[in-house]
Amino acid sequence: MSTLTTALESGTFTKVDFVAKTDPADVADDYSDLTGNLFGKLGAPDVSATKPTFTGHGTDSAKSTLTWAWGLPGGRWTYESEVELRKTGEKWQFVWEPTVVAPALAEGRSLHVETVQQQRGEILSTSGATLVADRPVVTVGIDKTLIDPIAAPAAARDVAAIVGINPKRYAKRVKAAGDKAFVEALSVRKPMMTKAKTDKIAKIKGAAMLNRTLPLGPTKEFASPVVGIVGEVTAEMMKKNPGTYLPGDLAGLSGLQARYDGQLRGKPGLQVAVLGDEGEVLKKLYSTDPIDGKSLTVTLDARLQKSAEKILKRVEPESALVAIRPSDGAVLVAANGADNKMNLATYGQSAPGSTFKAATTLALLRKGLNAKSQVSCPAKATVDGKTFKNDSWYPKSGLGEITLAHAVAESCNTAMVGAADEVGHAEIASAAASLGFGIDRDAGFTSYFGQIPEPAGETEHAADLIGQGKVLASPLVMAAVIGSIQAGQTVVPNLVQGQVAKPSGVEPLAPAEADQLRTIFRGVVTDGTGRGLADVPGKPVIAKTGTAEFDRNGKRLTHTWMIAAQGDLAVAVYVDEGENGASTSGPLVEAFLRMANER
User: Where in this chain does the record put each Penicillin-binding protein dimerisation domain (predicted)?
Assistant: First the structure.
């Protein structure tokens, strides 16, 4: 019996003996027709058999019961059938009939499994507004049943050119797909599918356009790297999660959609039926009801998010803007520039430049300094043979003995570097942690909270004090830094409702420290590099600019930053390449705060 059960599991019958010289190749073809799409959807079955028992009065006929088990997401579909055996000479042979596969089958009938689509959970705001929900799209692709496989790649290149994807890559995918496959090129929001574009696609042989729905935000850009996308499961996902998905199932492929796929996705229903020779359903053999997914609530503010994305549209380099509500750490905005290659808003990792002086300033306050304390700001400062300078735009009037508040306002690098002997690495790291920086934790979404590792020497430690060296930050964590100053306590960013990871072992920000910091960083706006924010309407703004040098392709370039807070709103803006924090990132912060005030 094992030869038959093995053949039924594999679909290859070359080692099975059948009566009346039945050709194993014909059996394989018949078996493929009878099982319909089950192998393609459910994979191979597990088949076991009982010991044959004799039938009738003779000893040359017997029957065996076959137990079939097809794998389904979260379970198995099992049933029994029978196979007859006949003895010819000294050899037992099998009788091949459609009922061997399932009792309800006959010639011209086949098994068919169909997914009954469930409703995917929506992504909602804390106010209950729908942010991401099923919206109508047109899925454009190549249906290889409509075209000669040899001509399909050329048609794919034509389709790709119309929908705006890489023609070479898409043609390669189409060529590699099976002869009966539909290969998706792109799903386009229905309002964006113009008649001109539809007419062009319709003229391409093999091209097809399917009307469907996909979970999408209110706009194409809406927090897309953070929220993520939904699409057909990949072979890799099916292999990694056996028994979870069926081919063609929709699942979260990135971002929150992937992280919370188990909650959002729910479970599709399934229906296994016997089809007639014209594809009509003759009998239902097995069915399960779909289970809808559950919604996910996030803190994003739709109005502010769209405002931020509108502001970043005019920025050519990669960029990001994050806004947090300091009172509770809620992430209101996580916006990425249109041309970003990755999610810089919550997971970017770049030197924060002078915005990190917020931590250095706190460390100095803990050493006994205050806003009015005198510090030295020379034109140059040398540490272990390395010369540090102020930025080229630093005013000469700010050199010499100045207050700590003035040094921060005009962003004197040499004053901070000069404190390297007074403030050790552990003290800087502790001050940074009090402002929410460098506290690694699982926040429930893709996030990076910065690093300030042990420096390799005195020069690197001095560079750390001005946000260079090995210090790395994301816009998310820098929004938390200025938010902590504004709130007077360590701000812990949170995006998903119910996912707040409180840090432990962090020295709290003392009320007096917070007061001093707010005074100092208010001076950045009234008397320093953040003057562009001085006339923003509403409550007083505190801020800090930042510029961090880096090398790329043999050129010395600069990342530009600005962090600011006003009322219960903290914001960080990062631009990958720019002139300086004040002139490149500053206007973006100003535009955002002005929009935020328009209620």
Answer: 118-284
